[in-house]
């Protein structure tokens, strides 16, 4: 609930700010490239290990990572955004104790609506798909692993603060559905819901 409220606040604040008379800007081109620092906050939910006992015993560490996204504006309001990073390494915990690591690559493709693209403060929302591929699983001394791929919805809310024709500052919140079976000795032992919220801040260049 707290995370959903943060997203709503971000959009509401941006829309209200956009209602205030502000300097209009030349669009600066159809392409927008952003670089962000993104904090990953996983949901840390999981099914009982072995099918019985307590839930949510498996967790994934929080991390702050670099992110690059490329957007193309089909119209002043509608854009598509491809979100990219390099493979990220995460620690995995069982009952608070480290049991190994895995790497994942989580690109997302989102369709966006920008409410006031010619204003100094321009809020937007996006909805799309995430594909996460897991690799280099090193859980339980090689006995455990995650299934290879996860496909799920991705949603976002953000604000661009225009500095001039080309440059902008950006804040962004995304919620991504990432889930995987947990295998021990090749047999499903649990299911983990990573489902992270990603808080990002960065700069953009439009051309």
Radius of gyration in whole Å, from Cα? 19 Å
- Kindly state the percentage of residues in helix: under 10%
CATH topology: Porin
Mean pLDDT: 87
Alpha-beta classification: mainly beta
Number of helices, where a helix is a run of at least 4 consecutive DSSP H or I residues: 1
**Series of H and E elements:** HEEEEEEEEEEEEEEE
| CATH architecture descriptor | Beta Barrel
Q: pLDDT below 50 for ≥5 consecutive residues: which ranges?
A: 15-22
Per DSSP, what share of the residues sits in E-state strands of 2 or more residues?
over 45%
Termini distance?
37 Å
Q: What number of structural domains do the residues give? A: 1
The tally of beta strands, per DSSP, is 15
CATH class annotation: Mainly Beta
Gross morphology is: elongated
Strand order of the largest sheet: 1-4-5-8-9-11-12-15
> Largest sheet at a glance?
8 strands, antiparallel, barrel
Summarize the structure.
This protein has 207 residues and is mostly beta strands.
